[in-house]
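Posted in: Protein Modeling Q&A

I'm a second-year student putting together a small comparison for a lab meeting, and my supervisor asked me to include a predicted structure for Urea amidolyase. I've never done this before, so apologies if this is the wrong subforum. The sequence is pasted below exactly as I got it from our records. If anyone can share the structure token output, I'd also love a short note on what stands out.
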Amino acid sequence: MTAVFSAAPSAVLAPVTEPVADPRCATVDRPGLLTTVQDWPGRTGYWHVGVPPSGPMDDLSFRLGNRALGNAEGAAGLECTMAGPALRFSEPTWVCVTGAPVTVTVAGRAAPLWRPVLVPAGEMLDVGPIRGPGMRCYVLVSGGLRLPGYLGSTATFTLGRFGGVDGRALTAGDVLPVGPAAGPPVGAVPGEEQPVLTRDWEIAVTEGPHGAPEFFTRDDIDTLLSTAYEVHFNSDRTGVRLIGPQPRWARADGGEAGLHPSNIHDTAYSVGALDFTGDTPILLGPDGPSLGGFVCPVTVAAAELWKLGQLCPGDRVRFVPVRADRTASPHELGAARRAGWPIVLSRGGDGDDGVLRHAETADGTPVTYRRAGDDGILVEYGPMTLDLELRARVHALHERLRARGERGITELTPGVRSLQVRVDPRARGIASALDLLTEVEAGLPAAGDLVVPSRTVDLPLSWDDPATREAITRYMHGVRADAPWCPWNIEFIRRMNGLDTVGDVFDTVFAAEYLVLGLGDVYLGAPLATPIDPRHRLITTKYNPARTWTPENAVGIGGAYLCIYGMEGPGGYQFVGRTTQVWSRRTDTETPWLLRFFDRIRWYPVSAAELLDLRADIAAGRGDMRTGPGEFRLAEYRRFLAEQDGSIASFRTRQSAAFSAERESWRRSGELGETR
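Accepted answer (user: helix_wrangler)
Welcome! Here is the predicted structure, written out as tokens:
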């Protein structure tokens, strides 16, 4: 059977936008350090399959520049990091440069920022190095840039290699089509509307989703809100890493989610969430992951996300808690946005630790509604354990909400035991969304009645692949060499699970049938899966700090979950091997993701050389994928668990003893720091 990359039931593919036939264009003489095409709000509607929105990191400067030119606020323009480009235009063209302070010349003469400037035909617009404060400037063009769209947007996602100009930063010689001007420029951006940039930032945050006292201690949160964190040099559009004190944590570990107390069962992230990957805090950016297994105690208010785009290495950041219902609207561009002040005007948080409401299902399963920023809710079911019945409840809620198509609900992203619900505050407030969720929950069928389509998908696995070995070597040379999982992740997995040999790890992985619980775990349709049979659930912990590089389609285990990395990038799961693509880069593919929720993955072994051949075939559209139809019935699964209860308990007892021994070893070696 020829490999088909097919849609999840909720997917709708946006049409591809063709370039507008127009002679106007800009030619790149000098690209700058990192200049990409972006539009606003970016690539929305695909969070559930691991596609980030991308778009301008400082949306405010970008949109103000477009408005000054008379463009639509979201018209495609250029984002320039640290230094800008030199461009020549085929026709007289109005441009506006905004954002961080930078020297701009037109035909060799100085030109102002924040004001439309006419560039004569054939002359050069030259945007130099950014002087600071700030990190990014924006070049907006009357009529906007007109490039082919991908999944409904021209925004560049360089890690995914799509959007903009071939999914990459600009290079010399690129030709950028420019659309017809809608009319004359509106005029300069008023000074009081221009964002204030600094080296000492205050950023408004809302509490939650995961704070004290469940995950962090009260002292941890007090420290978080009183510390001036320093921006780490290893920061980019995926996330801004911060340097600051290590939490003491309220838990000894993450249980089945991993050995470190920052580990949780995978859940959807919010852009702007402060994500603790182990002990390292990272502010997730517009190119960040949609799903992951780390706690996030606070989330940047939506109207303050522009500040992430201007944070420079060495800058200081203080987090200021605010009331979620009193934050500025990100849809404003004027004084109501409050960007003209160097401080956060409205102070004082909600004081609820990010928990909006507690409830129960009809059969008594606890439901917790958590705040996920000022425009989102995270619905969590049951205790913090891996239970496929909880995922079934998430599925039922997800499907019911999707079928209802309620006004103001913009994104629905399932996790292991949670569903993230994003709202448009202009159409529906958080309080109204909470009432809606409570109403829908009351009308859901009993979980035991759930029957879900569940294909069997057979995939090749190159065990202990050379590419994953290389990633471990890079980690040891560039991050840390003394990690407990180095130099061989598979041996670490063996030790953590009390198995006799690494051959037992191999046998367990290949015997398992992995149920896909989420998509987009580390981007682009990457499945988050766990064995249906609990006796096949190998438990590990995640890298701390995370890797900076992971090969595309590496296969790893973190907590009790397996993931196939959809693309190159950072990561933290313990490697077992590498497989074929789960995301198609072919432009003739309507739906580029391979897997669906509740698919069952089975592995068959191949050599590293065979895998390379299979990967080449799939890239060329020739690959074969073995699939079979099926269903997942929760009632049958309950019977299976009851029949195998004794054997499962015996397996878990041995595994728990090995897990505890590893944790004690970490405690003695100082790996857990001040954890208590």
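A couple of things worth pointing out for your meeting: The chain has ten helices and 37 strands. The two ends are 53 Å apart (CA to CA).
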